[in-house]
Amino acid sequence: MRRIWRPLLVLLLLLAAFVYLTNTSLLASRSAGDPILLAHRGIAQRFDTTALENDTCTAERIFPPTHAFLENTIPSMRASFEAGADIVEIDVHPTTDGKFAVFHDWTVDCRTDGTGVTREHSMAELKKLDIGHGYTADGGKTFPFRGKGIGLMPSLDDVLNAFPNRRFLINVKSRDPEEGAKLAAALKALPANRRAQLMVYGGDEPVTRLKSELPEVKTVSRGSLKACLIRYIAYGWTGIVPETCRNMAVLVPINVAPWLWGWPDRFLNRMEAAGSTVFLLGPYGGGAFSTGIDTPEEIKQLPVGYSGGIWTNEIEMAADALKSKPR
């Protein structure tokens, strides 16, 4: 019996040593540089997130305003970049006149003085709306932004022209593959170096369609992210990066990250070599997946020397907190 167990034990020890040496960050070099800050929706009015549903009108539950910026507007994006954002996330909808409107909601009823499905309007019609019309922090007694948002809904062209050298993450709001094709056509009209500054995420169908037409653009959808992480957890201990993880934005909740093989430095190095960018999200608890690194306490949880991406809804807080965090 000893003759059988002795070589098996040696094999197990060798395998354990291989797994350790392949995945320990103690033997990995760190990528130089500061973390990449991604401002989700830019600088926006914050709101109560209790019991949110897909159709909840968040403009009707904002906290008392501390600034004048409205999400998905050029002033908000400019302020986000000035605050320290490297990338700003924006939401888009196709319009009836062949443009893409930059606006979060599926309908215009909540935030604006208009009605109807966003994509059933022309860009010219959407530019006439007051996008600050519906915001209230006191149950409708006052509307602090009413009349101040007329003409502030930009098109995707407006945004890219206003910030020709800035990076954006574009969120496709539908599950329609044809929308992915339309966005791919719009991005194909851009120079290759400009496309390299853009990433796209959203529903599986439109993102898959866009990826098939523009494979060089980094994308992510729920399906592609799930496929990437499951495969990586299954055999990433070998040092092999699954094909599904290549050239994408890899979104990782901060409480899941320590369970990934080679976290942090080996993991970041592997994804970078595969053409992908890692973004840490807030803790995943089975609910919404778009929570960000939004508190100083969460910033403190970042690994020392972390140089990957950070997804945040509080860009000013994140940028300031990182300045005081040990590097």
UniProtKB/TrEMBL annotation:
Annotated GO biological process: lipid metabolic process
Alphabetical list of SUPFAM superfamilies matching this protein: PLC-like phosphodiesterases (SSF51695)
InterPro entries the UniProt entry points to: GP_PDE_dom, PLC-like_Pdiesterase_TIM-brl
Domain of life per record: Bacteria
Any one GO MF annotation of this record: phosphoric diester hydrolase activity
Domain GP-PDE, first and last residues per copy: 51-322
Protein name: Glycerophosphodiester phosphodiesterase
Native species: Paramesorhizobium deserti
